[in-house]
Write a structure and sequence with these properties.
Low-confidence stretches of chain B: none
Shape of chain A: globular
Largest sheet of chain B: 7 strands, mixed
Oligomer: heterodimer
Mean pLDDT of chain B: 94
Order of helices and strands of chain A: EEEEEEEEEEE
Low-confidence stretches of chain A: none
Mean pLDDT of chain A: 94
């Protein structure tokens, strides 16, 4: 069973703060790691991916990967109310992705 | 790039009828497409993996005779919900795998079976 664990939340952060979303996975064969954002009533959209250990920054988003610990995280700096959504962690191998249940983030004004 | 469309965006049908949902990759070819289902406030559930020119691979618990999948071309996969019942009412989302990248999702189709 390829499990992906995420805290369901909701994670509530004030506007302007850093939101930290965490994910652990069981499949050591996972080679690539994706973060998707899903607004209520909408389909998921890709926001970040990371392949190598360490940090990867893209604008206000930073993905962090530690394969030894089987841990991947997403940091959102200067959080905005528009960042309020569910964030899905998706480790993958080849074309297959294993989705976590997602963490609900609420950014309060 | 990496645009995936779905049609229709929503559909209401009577119990016992069949409903076809189309998923198209508009600006890339997709050998592999996926069909997911999501109930309100639930997580994304993979139903099946659709491979162009071959039979789909269904996840455990998904009835292949009820959810017919056809992937006739590199840009089109269809999901037909046969003899739909109210419990099939859900948000159906497809995704297409872009080679060398990842899955890109369509906007989803809301199905309501009365």
């Amino acid at each position: 069973q390829k499990e992906v664990e995420q805290n369901s939340g909701p994670l509530s952060v004030p506007e302007g703060a850093i939101a930290s979303l965490n994910c652990t996975y069981s499949d050591r064969g996972s080679q690539s790691f994706f973060w998707y954002r899903q607004y209520s009533g909408k389909s998921p959209e890709l926001i970040m991916f990371i392949y190598s250990n360490g940090d990867k920054e893209d604008g206000r988003f930073t993905a962090q990967l530690n394969k030894a610990s089987q841990y991947v995280s997403l940091l959102i700096r200067d959080s905005q109310p528009s960042d309020s959504a569910t964030y899905l962690c998706a480790p993958g191998s080849g074309y297959a992705l294993n989705f976590g249940k997602g963490t609900s983030l609420l950014v309060t004004p | 790039g990496a645009v995936v469309s779905q049609h229709p965006s929503w559909v209401i049908c009577k119990s016992g009828t069949s409903v076809k949902i189309e998923c198209r990759s508009l600006d890339f070819q997709a050998t592999t497409m996926f069909w997911y289902r999501q109930f309100p406030k639930q997580s994304l559930m993979l139903m099946a993996t659709s491979n162009e020119g071959s039979k789909a691979t269904y996840e455990q618990g998904v009835e292949k005779d009820k959810f017919l999948i056809n992937h006739a071309s590199l840009t089109l996969s269809t999901l037909t919900v046969t003899s739909a019942h109210p419990e099939d009412s859900s948000f159906y989302i497809c995704s297409a795998h872009r080679e060398g990248e990842t899955q890109y999702f369509g906007p989803g189709t809301r199905l309501l079976v009365l």
